[in-house]
Structures are given as C-alpha cells and as structure tokens.
Amino acid sequence: MTSLHADEAFLGHYQLSHDPFATRVPGFKFFPAQRKPVLGQLHHLARYSQLLLVVTGPQGSGKTLLRQALVASTNKQSVQSVVVSARGASDAAGVMRQVAQALNVAQPEMRAILSQVVQLALTGQEVYLLVDDAEQLGESALEALLGLAAGTPEGRPHVFLFGESSLIDRLEQLSAEEERFHVIELQPYTEEETREYLAQRLDGAGQGIELFTADQITDIHERSDGWPGAINQVARDAMIEAMIASRTAVKRPSMGFKMPKKHVLALGAVVVVGILAAWLMPGRSSNNSATAPATPPANAQAQLPLGQGQPTAQQSNNQGGPAIEFAGNSQPMPLPLVGKSQPVMRGPLAEAAGNTEDDEPGPAGGTSLQPPTVTTTAPPVGVPAGPAPTPAPARPAAAVAAAKPVAPVVKPAPVQVATAKPAPKVAEKPAAASAPASGGSWYASQPSGHYVVQIVGTSSEAAAQAIVKENGGEYRYFKKNLQGKPLYVVTYGNFSDRAAALAAIKVLPAKVQAGKPWPRTVASVQQELAATH
Predict the structure, then answer these.
(1) Are residues 114 and 226 in the same domain?
(2) Of 51, 85, 87, 232, which residue is most buried, by most CB within 10 angstroms?
(3) DSSP code of 321?
C-alpha cells in the first residue's frame, strides 16, 4: 500500500524514522544466502567466459540490488565499472554515447570504444559494462552490446544485462543459434529469507519484526511469491490495514465502557423527573393531608426538565390534588442527543491520516437543548379543596382531552423534532456517492497501444477508491488477481506513447513520484482484466 496522503500518520503510528518499504531506501542492503552464489558465479564467468551475461527475474526480484553488489564487490584498482540505464539509452547510439563518455572516448563508435578497452587491459584494468532495465533496450542496442561483448582478440569488456525474462527470446533471435550469451535466473526468497528481509527493513527504520505475527509473515510470503518488490507492497498494505483497524476501534468505543457526558446528564435528568413525579402524585397528597399545610402557596410552579407524556386517568379525574398540565406536543419527544443520525464514515486513507470527529456532536440545526416546562397550579388561598368526588369510569385519553380544555401555556419552542430528522440523510448520501466504481470497462474501451502510468497496487479497494477520489478524474483503478487474491491497481492518465507517459510522471506531485510510478501499455492491463474474468 502506498497511501499517498497518510505517510505522516503511518510513520507516526508505528514510530518509524522513514518508510521501511519504500522502493529504494538509501544504505539498505539485503543479500540472502541464495544470492551469494549468484554473485560469485558472475565474478567467475566474467573472468573465464567470453559470453554476454544475462541476469533475469520479474519486476521487483532484486536485479538492481544484485547489480549494485556486483559493482561494490569488484576491485576498484583492477576493474572499471560502467553502468548504463536503458531508460535513457534505448538505441545503439544512446548506449555508445554513455559508454564512450564513461571511458573518456571522443568518438562514440564501437571501434574507438574497443580500442580504449584494449589500452586499459594493457595497464591491468578490465571494463565491466552493466545495463539495468535491459528489457527496454531496442534491437539495435542489443546488437551493439553483443558486438562489444565479443570484442577483439586483444581485449573485450565484460557485459552484464539485468532485465526481465522477455529479454531472452530477443537475444536468441539476434544470436542466430550461436552461443553468444549465458543466462542466470534469480530465484524468489524462501519464507525464512522473507522474514529476515522484513526484519532488516524494519530495523533500519527503528522498529523490529515484532510488528508482524508469524501468521502475517506467512501470508506476506505467500501473497508476494517471495519476490522482494512484492514483499514491500504486501507488507506495507498489511501495516496500513492494521493501523486503520486499531484507530477505528479507539475512535468508536462501546457504550458499555464510555458514555458521552451529555447523555449521562440527560439520564440523570430523567431520574430526577421520575422522583418529582412520584412525589407529586395525588395519592401522596391525600395520604399526607393530616401533616400537610392547610393552604399551599398560590400558583406554585415547578419546572421539571425533560417532562413528557400525558397525565394518567387517575390524575385526570382526581379533583382534590393539584392539576398538572403539560404544554406542547402530546407525543413523546426523543431525549436530546439520542437521535437517529450517524456520523459520516470517512475513507480509510483519511482515517489513517488521523482525521477525527467530535465525540459529542451538538444538536441538529435549529434544535435547542432547553427542556420543556411543567407547570403545577395549586388552588387559590382560602378556597377549600372540597371533598373528592366519586371516581368516574376510566375514559380514553382522547375523550379526556376533549372533555377538559387545557389552559393555554406557552409551548417550549426550542424542541423542534422535525428539524432534527433530516440529519441522517446528510450522513448517508455522501457515503454512497463517494465510492468510485472500478474502471475495468474504461480500460477495455481504450486502444491497446496507448499507455497509462501505474501509481500503486493495494489489496484494499477502499484505499484505491480514496486515492482516485482525492486526486481526480485522471486517476482510475482496476481489479486483478494476485495469487488468487484481489489486487486493486491505481493508474493515471491516457497517453498515446511511452514518451508522453514518462513526461507526465515528471510533473506528478512529489508524494506520487515517491511511490516510483511507471508507464505500462493499456494492452497489459486488458490482459490482466481478461485473466481476472
């Protein structure tokens, strides 16, 4: 996972000094036991073989690291290493120009270069010519390199090509059944080597292998097939997903452990209302008439927060006790802050970046938290209450309300139930509209010769959707299968040729370029989509 907008949160969550799974970390060198014999074989063949040497492996298999180790392990006094990048020299002229410049040759021609190699051999110096990303070389460049590797009887440079396996078929066609090159195929890491690789990556960033469980390490190895480039991607995705899960659990605790303060106050107010209502019941007044004062204060009022509901039939028919009148809507009203609205769910990359929501949101617009008022009116001073009449048969609440007019009381304007209902819709609609659809149909409709820029691949579709949504319409993603598990690949743009795609990469934001985006043909995407279906 490369999360373009959660780098700081990712590093801060795990307390890392840098991203341990970046494509190229300065100073990082991991050379498993199985690669040491390969390095020794390259040195041996360079000394005793007259063939061009080819090292092959898929993208992210460690070819560049092996090339760096080969240069570092040579004797600088006796070997002059010339490194050529196929990205900047795809034809014969480009290759010759780079080699001539490195060897201080005025004319970038094969005869002049070989003459300089012979002169260096007379002084006891050999020339190693190493070409990275060799699968990008054109036919003329490959022919020129085969010619340099053959050299002359007096001397020749040792040519090493590091590229993907597609390079072999092209060399065979140019060799015309002659033995002109030797191939060394890299092997993937074992599970134990994968574990050592992860440990060294994390150790360089200030953490240890304890961040992963044994099951996670096994899963990372199986999903990556043991290739270091894929190990970086899968391991980072696993850490991002674990971080998002832990932050979600912290930000949404269960009510059993912590209840918002306003809810606690609301529940306390309900308890107070119940106690006061029990104290004001008519039965209590009649039973305690002997000890109660003969004349209660006139127009005594008690404001009871959160009072709701209708008086019972017994209270409505009891003429001896004080009349309790409830102003406002006769229907029960929800307690403050116990509405149906839900918080808006943010995308996983935003949660990874540390964006938080208020734990205690205020009421919806136009809704006040002021409780309704309950008014208790006692008989005027000096007017006897009179004997209690014989209770009449209980009548429905509607009939009681019709028979006895309610004294006009100012309604508690702050309680506006209707204005609080639209709040859930605001939370629901953006969540449904924000998820971009997979762009498989778009890729299928494009010319196969066009190019797109691959930005990132992630096992989380939500992460891919967040990247596309954040960066705009030129970003799309499609779904493919990697070892039987889904992988969501985000791409950028649509270009008529490779040069246009490479130019677009240079103007992408710095955070996007940090993920090492690379151009690929639409045809390759269409093939992966076809394999997925």
Answers:
(1) no
(2) 232
(3) S
Same domain, 528 and 476: yes
Compute, in degrees rounded to 10, the torsion defined by CA atoms 105, 107, 113, 115: -90
Query: Is residue 359 one of the residues assigned to a domain?
Result: no
Residue found under tokens 């490369």:
2
Q: Give the alpha-carbon dihedral of 414, 418, 422, 423, to 10 degrees.
A: 30
Higher pLDDT, 64 or 356: 64
Over its C-alpha atoms, the chain yields an Rg (Å, rounded) of 39
Residues 526 and 529: their CA atoms lie apart, in Å, by 5
Q: How far apart are CA 438 and CA 487, in angstroms?
A: 12
User: Taking the chain, what is the end-to-end CA distance rounded to the nearest angstrom?
Assistant: 24
The SS3 of residue 399 is: helix
Same domain, 140 and 104: yes
236-258 pLDDT per residue, tens: 999 988 888 887 765 555 444 45
Residue 140 makes CB contacts below 8 A (sequence gap 6+) with 91, 92, 93
CA angle 516, 519, 523 (to 5 degrees): 140
* Same-domain status, 225 and 135: no
Helix (H, G, I), strand (E, B) or coil at 508: coil
Report the 3 state secondary structure along 419-478: HHCCHHHHHHHHHHHCCCCCCHHHHHCCCCCCEEEEEEEECCHHHHHHHHHHHCCCEEEE
pLDDT above 70: residue 10: yes
With tokens 């009072």, the residue in question is: 307
Given a contact cutoff of 8 angstroms between Cβ atoms, the answer to whether 484 and 524 are in contact is: no
**Separation between Cα atoms, residue 340 and residue 334, nearest integer Å:** 10
For residue 182, with 0-12 CB atoms within 10 Å meaning exposed, 13-18 middle and 19 or more buried, which class applies? middle
Lowest-pLDDT choice from 271-280, 362-371, 515-524: 362-371
Q: Is 522 helix (H, G, I), strand (E, B) or coil?
A: helix
Amino acid at 498: R
Please give the C-alpha separations between residue 351 and each of 241, 243, 249, 429, 495, in angstroms, as whole numbers. 11, 9, 11, 19, 33
The pair of structure tokens assigned to 165 is 């396996």
CA–CA separation, 247 vs 357, rounded Å?
A: 12
